[in-house]
Design a protein that fits this description.
Elements (H helix, E strand, L loop, with lengths): L1 E6 L2 E4 L4 E9 L6 E7 L6 E7 L5 E3 L7 E6 L4 E6 L8 E8 L17 E2 L3 E6 L1
Parallel strand pairs: 2-11
Antiparallel strand pairs: 1-3, 3-8, 4-5, 4-9, 5-6, 7-8, 9-10, 9-11
Length: 128
């Protein structure tokens, strides 16, 4: 099992920046990739960014490209999401997720169903 704890959320104004952190514990040796998802009230959980644990390849949702950056610290088993140019539509609960080695030849790391472990979420609120 992998346990994930997010931190760094808060209330900011449009145009501000925030850095979210996600610390992993437990069987971190099984982590093959991590991602950030977000969910606003009444909406589906959506993909934000993902990173491969070995190699560091990244994926981003089009809505955050150029504004958000995902990066990691393998030694600390921690992944970060640096968010700049925040907009009111970025307001959501942000969740960190981790996945293990792929079980099939097809891996879609933008899908929440690829991930086994989830954090409790951290609230990001952006005022206009």
């Amino acid at each position: 099992q992998v346990q994930l704890v997010e931190s760094g959320g808060g209330l900011v104004q449009a145009g501000d920046s925030l850095r979210l952190s996600c610390a992993a514990s437990g069987r971190t040796f099984r982590i093959a990739g991590m991602g950030w998802f977000r969910q606003a009230p009444g909406k589906e959980r959506e993909f934000v960014a993902a990173i491969k644990w070995s190699g560091g390849n990244t994926n981003y949702a089009e809505s955050v490209q150029g504004r958000f950056t995902i990066y990691k610290d393998n030694a600390k088993s921690t992944v970060y999401l640096q968010m700049t140019g925040l907009r009111p539509e970025d307001t959501a609960v942000y969740y960190c997720a981790a996945r293990g080695p792929p079980r099939t030849v097809l891996v879609v790391n933008t899908s929440p169903y690829e991930y086994d472990s989830w954090g409790q979420g951290t609230q990001v609120t952006v005022s206009s």
